[in-house]
Design brief:
2 copies of one chain form a homodimer. Chain A contains 9 helices and 9 strands. The first copy, chain A, is α/β, with parallel strands linked by helices. Chain A has 2 domains: 141 residues, P-loop containing nucleotide triphosphate hydrolases (Rossmann fold, 3-Layer(aba) Sandwich); 60 residues, 2-Layer Sandwich (Guanylate Kinase phosphate binding domain), CATH 3.30.63.10. A 5-stranded parallel beta sheet of chain A has the order 2-7-1-8-9, with helices on both faces. A 4-stranded mixed beta sheet of chain A has the order 4-3-6-5. The radius of gyration of chain A is 19 Å and the shape is globular.
Amino acid sequence: MNRGLLIVLSGPSGVGKGTVCTQLRQKQSELIYSVSATTRTPRQGEIEGINYFFKSREQFQDMIARDALLEYAEYVGNYYGTPRDFVERMLDSGKDVILEIEVQGALKVKEKFAEGVFIFLLPPSLDVLKQRITGRGTENSDVIDHRMSVAVDEMNLIRYYDYAVVNDEIEAACHRIQSIITAEHCRKERFMAGFDAFKATTEKA
Amino acid sequence: MNRGLLIVLSGPSGVGKGTVCTQLRQKQSELIYSVSATTRTPRQGEIEGINYFFKSREQFQDMIARDALLEYAEYVGNYYGTPRDFVERMLDSGKDVILEIEVQGALKVKEKFAEGVFIFLLPPSLDVLKQRITGRGTENSDVIDHRMSVAVDEMNLIRYYDYAVVNDEIEAACHRIQSIITAEHCRKERFMAGFDAFKATTEKA
């Protein structure tokens, strides 16, 4: 059986990563969502192993020490990270895993898991991104300008990714990502790994 | 406008290149079929520029001398080849071009047009390929054994291709090839070519 693929979906804040990822999982139910570990307290209704792997601070620091995380970050006093073990088990069982993550986190994953498929989600234009950020309401123009400047800096990191997918329309973006997954499964390198077994089918002929 | 892609579809004799290519063009009418040049006499109903570009032997040899062919071969006394100019014009106008060609011809194209997308079509197993070759009738077992041995040699050339697509079922094979075309259009390198123009959209924001 062929090993699964780790699909890393990233892009600037406001581009619609979460919406695209949710839609993709609905359309492609066999796609496994990478479950994060966190030290924050579970909220009402959150289930261990589905929403998060809930860890104590000591457990999390032990995972860091054992290099058991593909990436991690501290945010408002809590750790969040991607357990390597969960991803590896799913890939070994032939399942594709999708990891939705912000731009810096994706680059950390790339350091530890270069064989992943790194997809950068883009807005159709920077105008549209600004509208989406502004459309969330509440923020004043300084905050919006700051976010836009961060987004432009992040977009320069696209050079480290494999694919650029424009999120002009959710259905179209999902279709492009599904095509990328199918195409990556057809890459010659993946076929070559099982080529000797394939050629042996002539013996039976 | 983005430049089109040259999709080179190849694979051993009997694998079903022609059937898959015909089906693909029906499903994706905007895909342009690369028209070959030949010195053979037009058959009833064949149209210049649609089925072939019909050339005199002198004209064809002049094209060879001018390096105007992506590949060519002589077969039963006639020349056959792929005019570069037709392909380039289509790509420049943003259209994707598909070239269906045998394995050796595809490798010649790669020498002159490395930026093409090279897809190798495979049978589900060598058993199935043997059945398909045998199923054509008429051939004796020496001919079949020879064809199988050529097919296995050709399959070793898959290492020079980008993708391996198994033709287990025509619809599935077409879906994989369509996915490859969509994914290749999303490659980061293609996006980067227009990245400065994209970033300039912030000026208008």
